[in-house]
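Q: What residues go here?
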């Protein structure tokens, strides 16, 4: 399967979406079972008790749910707040929330309390940037001064009317939500479901094909690609492999060579593992502390591997590379940005 292909499907009444790039699974989104709160949801919340030792405060959400806001100053118990869910909640824990709301569409992001206009740096053409700036200024005319706007890179290939419609929709939604600050805790904006995420975030650059026929996951082999992610073993070039296993405390990664145990073979396998590790963690929905036991190699080869790791995780974002420990392990942390695939895919994929 060559090129960029977006596949939208529905399995057991749950939306699923996949982005395949040259036959490799690059992105995956599966709606959770039941009425789960999704990242991006916006609530009117009520400040509860501060946890100064943890640098934050709990907030009350509807239906007895709880959020945790990493902010204490300027917030009093009982105060009404608008908060947005910034990631999934671990089992038994509060939802991570933020007061920095984002109203995101395919072409635009409206940013309350961050005024000004920003255009994606990926749009280089100065004439186009000027045209987009004029379009945005007109579309935001009359909006609250506190609203800022970011134009996304997808604007480069879009029709002006489509961009203007997107801006207006996000502007109106933001103003309506910002005006709705009184009353009990309430869900004001749903988080994005799988098909919306694909349409909003995966169409730039434009895909070669978008497949919406029922059964697309099975017909095009996406089922098998997802099933492989549910296994700890990841085969690597040269006969090596890595094992990715999540524990309660951390994610452990063990890299092994194949029959060839020479220093050159170890470095080759380690490089292959480093290049694919970020994608594997993202698709598996794994985060927190990650400890990697690379195949044995000389300390002088670590400098080469360091550069590979940095380049690989630069594209992933939200990762902190702590580096080597005294025992020769490599440590990093990655922000949890989705539910574990093991939980989402249970019962859907063999």
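A:
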């Amino acid at each position: 399967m060559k090129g960029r292909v977006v596949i939208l499907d529905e399995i057991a009444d749950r939306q699923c979406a996949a982005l395949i790039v040259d036959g490799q699974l690059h992105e995956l989104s599966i709606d959770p079972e039941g009425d789960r709160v999704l990242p991006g949801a916006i609530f009117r919340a009520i400040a509860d008790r501060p946890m100064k030792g943890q640098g934050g405060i709990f907030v009350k959400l509807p239906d007895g749910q709880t959020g945790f806001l990493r902010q204490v100053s300027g917030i009093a118990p009982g105060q009404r707040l608008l908060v947005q869910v910034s990631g999934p909640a671990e089992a038994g824990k509060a939802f991570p929330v933020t007061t920095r709301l984002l109203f995101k569409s395919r072409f635009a992001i409206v940013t309350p309390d961050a005024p000004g206009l920003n255009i994606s740096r990926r749009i280089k053409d100065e004439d186009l940037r000027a045209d987009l700036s004029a379009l945005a200024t007109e579309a935001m005319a009359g909006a609250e001064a506190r609203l800022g706007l970011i134009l996304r890179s997808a604007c480069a290939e879009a029709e002006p009317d489509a961009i203007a419609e997107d801006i207006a929709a996000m502007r109106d939604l933001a103003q309506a939500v910002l005006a709705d600050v009184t009353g009990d805790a309430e869900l004001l904006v749903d988080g994005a479901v799988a098909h919306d995420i694909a349409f909003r975030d995966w169409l730039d650059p434009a895909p070669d094909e978008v497949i919406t026929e029922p059964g697309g996951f099975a017909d095009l082999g996406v089922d098998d690609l997802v099933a492989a992610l549910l296994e700890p073993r990841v085969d690597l070039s040269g006969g090596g492999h890595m094992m990715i296993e999540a524990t309660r405390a951390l994610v452990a990664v063990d890299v092994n060579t194949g029959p060839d145990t020479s220093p050159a073979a170890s470095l080759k396998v380690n490089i292959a593992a480093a290049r694919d590790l970020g994608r594997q963690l993202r698709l598996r929905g794994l985060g927190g502390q990650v400890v990697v036991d690379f195949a044995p190699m000389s300390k002088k080869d670590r400098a080469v591997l360091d550069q590979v790791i940095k380049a690989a995780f630069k594209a992933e974002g939200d990762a902190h590379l702590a580096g080597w420990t005294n025992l020769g392990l490599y440590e990093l942390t990655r922000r949890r940005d989705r539910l574990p695939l093991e939980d989402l895919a249970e019962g859907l994929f063999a």
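A: Context that may help when evaluating the design: The chain has a mean pLDDT of 94. The CA atoms of residues 139 and 335 lie 35 Å apart.
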